[in-house]
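task queued by scheduler; priority normal; single chain, no ligands, no partner chains; default sampling; output format set to structure tokens
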Amino acid sequence: MPDKILVLAEHRSGKLKNISWEAIGFGQKLAAQLGKEMNVVLIGAEIESLADEISNKCGQTLLTISSEHCADYTPETHCEVLSAVARQEAPFLFLMGHTYQVIDFAPKLAAMLGRGFVPNCVDYQWDGSRLTFVRQVFNGKLNLQVGLKGDPPYLVSLQQGAFNSYEVQIKSSPRVVALDVPLPAEILRRKVLEVIEAAQGKIDLSQADIIVAGGRGLANKEKFQIILDLAEALGAGVGASRPVTDGGWLPKEHQIGSSGQTVTPKLYIACGISGAIQHLVGMSNSGCIVAINKDPNAPIFSIADYGIVGDVFKVVPVLTQLAREMRKG
């Protein structure tokens, strides 16, 4: 059985995406359990600073493919490079984040290698002899265990926020190996003319260290203002359960859960959120969860590290005032 796990480090505008660190942390954990070596793969042009960052932060062996033809992402170049790396390194697993870029090229890469692709995984199971990955289906209502069949490498993408970026372990012997992958002229026909970034909110929830989220218990859009005030006082992102965005209190981009974003902040404050399973799957891996709800039997308390049974309209303003005083001090 191949003894190596490869993890793709995705980047944009000279910065590594947070989901790359999530994949690296998970790759390290899985490699230790399976008794395998983990290497990181980095593709691009002028990527020396990114290579240094990865080497210094996790110390894993880093395989770099640097070429002016890889300065801009295209599915053809990525598939050509990664298929060559897969054939050369013969890994057991090829892990990557489930991003729009991966959705674009991974099915094509799997077809080139004649292998399967298990997308958007949120968990895994290892019983000492058999490895399976967990995907959510039917809008997050069911978990599906997917086994690995056929010969490796197996391609797997990880849902953003399902694994923790702060679990990355620093290894003591970083090593950078530059690989040379020839790119045939016929795959270089596509040229990127312009990259237009999609409109973003003030805070990207996937990158926020603190998120204050509100639910149906806030009653209406006007009363939801206390959540915005607390988030401002903490310098936090603003999240919401589905009833809030369905009601038009906040734009859809703030929704957290199976039909919204999956997040893993260091601190998640859930205010007036009962804790339906559709919401829990989007935030249950947060570092510390604080729940505020007047119902002592609310499901959110089952996963909370700290719970406050009380009226959000009395508790949240007090927290906001304390946060403002601490910032002044």
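post-processing summary
- The mean pLDDT is 88.
- The chain has two domains: 4-187, 210-328.
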